[in-house]
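Tutorial handout. Part one gives the primary structure; part two gives the three-dimensional structure as tokens.
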Amino acid sequence: MALPKNPSTEAMNVSEARRQFSETLDRVRRREIRVRVEKSGIPVAGIVSVRDLAILEGQDSRQETQLGALNRYQAAFAGFTDIENEIEIARELENIRQELRGERAQERS
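Part two.
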């Protein structure tokens, strides 16, 4: 089974994109190209397939979830000094190691 090809990225200025809009959309839909639309040589937008857009939206969602977890973690340790945080982390790591040792011991039994 062949892997799906990744479309190439083409730069187009706004005027060219406007003139070729229908043809460009067909090529994007067929996953032949992705388009970086430029205004005065500055990239301002992209035209991608719905599949690529879904991938981007999924990445955004995962990033929001991860940032939320990071914010909750930071809030939990607010007000602690770096040394207090290091001590607490070391304590938790030791608890995890002990749990793993216990699980391994049970597996051997």
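Part three, for discussion. Helices lie at 14-19, 21-29, 50-76, 82-108. The chain has a mean pLDDT of 92.
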